[in-house]
């Protein structure tokens, strides 16, 4: 009996120590965040009316995104704050002002998470008033549909519709706008990649180039509106280029799957620096699609070495018959096979 009592006493003492240590960590992180936000006015959130609180949350999220370094530092500190606060939130060790500040930072973190990760924020430690405020912040400026991109329960939306860009264009917070455009374009590229792998990869690289430039912008540029406008324009231009590319198969008189093989054959011609008549390239892409369809009709075709070998032989014969110049045929087969697998993976 005494041993059992000693065990529980030890457990209680350990629990008390954990709570006390967590209180210290929370207060340390609040101090760090106070220094990080010393140039930002939080009073609109802490003592303002609901509309002011809402605007302050969105402006704080914009402030955090001024540089990638600031954003990473903020997210790291608030992650530590949250982990510690989860342990000691019921301790009564914090003043009402401190709790308001904690909820403020957690809400800002949740908005950044939604912008960058697309996942629902963890609001377990927030009271109902702050949870609703956070939801209102996420849904303000008519961007709620953008935030729903990637949600499992989201019905199919045409992300190439003019409504999407029009909604984002209303947003007055430039860094937030850039993040949303980046998210929208990444989703659009992923959808194209399911149809045309090589085009999707090309646009992914082009988007990454813009994002890297944005993340590496100089300290002197972070508050210059024309610099942020340039990044916004670059992403929008790439968005419309993707939209045009997505529908380009219609101009060639072929379907979107045949266009994927056309792009492979054309890309290899560019890579190996040879010319091949475009009308013959279109016809060859259609023939390649026919050969692939013949083999891909089997459910397990991509796992059967005999069918894969037949596909390779048929493609080599087809390319030879059509005088497709003598380049590395194994690379052509590899690209076509990967595209065929891509179709199989995403085709209903």
TrEMBL record:
UniProt cross-references to InterPro entries, sorted A to Z: T1RH-like_C (IPR021810)
Any Pfam family the entry gives: T1RH-like_C
Q: What residues does the Type I restriction enzyme HindI endonuclease subunit-like C-terminal domain cover? A: 11-345
**Name of the protein described by the UniProt record:** Type I restriction enzyme R subunit
What is this organism's lineage?
A: Bacteria, Pseudomonadati, Bacteroidota, Flavobacteriia, Flavobacteriales
């Amino acid at each position: 009996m005494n041993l059992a009592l000693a065990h529980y006493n030890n457990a209680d003492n350990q629990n008390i120590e954990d709570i006390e240590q967590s209180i210290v960590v929370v207060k340390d992180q609040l101090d760090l965040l106070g220094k990080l936000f010393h140039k930002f006015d939080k009073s609109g959130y802490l003592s303002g009316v609901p509309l002011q609180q809402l605007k302050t949350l969105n402006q704080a999220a914009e402030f955090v995104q001024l540089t990638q370094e600031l954003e990473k530092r903020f997210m790291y500190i608030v992650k530590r704050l949250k982990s510690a606060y989860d342990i000691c939130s019921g301790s009564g060790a914090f003043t009402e002002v401190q709790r308001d500040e904690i909820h403020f930072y957690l809400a800002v973190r949740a908005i950044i998470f939604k912008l960058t990760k697309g996942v629902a924020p963890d609001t377990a430690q927030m009271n109902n008033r702050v949870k609703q405020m956070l939801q209102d912040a996420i849904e303000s400026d008519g961007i709620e549909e953008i935030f729903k991109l990637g949600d499992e329960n989201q019905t199919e939306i045409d992300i190439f519709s003019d409504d999407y860009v029009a909604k984002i264009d209303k947003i007055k917070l430039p860094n937030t706008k850039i993040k949303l455009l980046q998210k929208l374009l990444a989703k659009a590229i992923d959808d194209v990649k399911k149809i045309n792998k090589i085009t999707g990869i090309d646009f992914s690289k082009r988007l990454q180039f813009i994002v890297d430039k944005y993340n590496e912008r100089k300290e002197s540029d972070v508050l210059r509106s024309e610099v942020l406008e340039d990044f916004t324009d670059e992403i929008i231009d790439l968005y419309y280029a993707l939209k045009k590319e997505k529908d380009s198969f219609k101009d060639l008189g072929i379907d979107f799957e045949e266009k994927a093989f056309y792009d492979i054959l054309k890309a290899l011609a560019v890579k190996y620096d040879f010319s091949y008549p475009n009308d013959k390239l279109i016809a060859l892409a259609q023939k390649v699609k026919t050969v692939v369809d013949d083999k891909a009709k089997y459910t397990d075709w991509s796992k059967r070495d005999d069918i894969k070998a037949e596909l390779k032989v048929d493609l080599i014969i087809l390319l030879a018959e059509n005088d497709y110049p003598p380049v590395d045929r194994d690379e052509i087969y590899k690209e076509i096979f990967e595209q065929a697998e891509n179709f199989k993976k995403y085709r209903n």
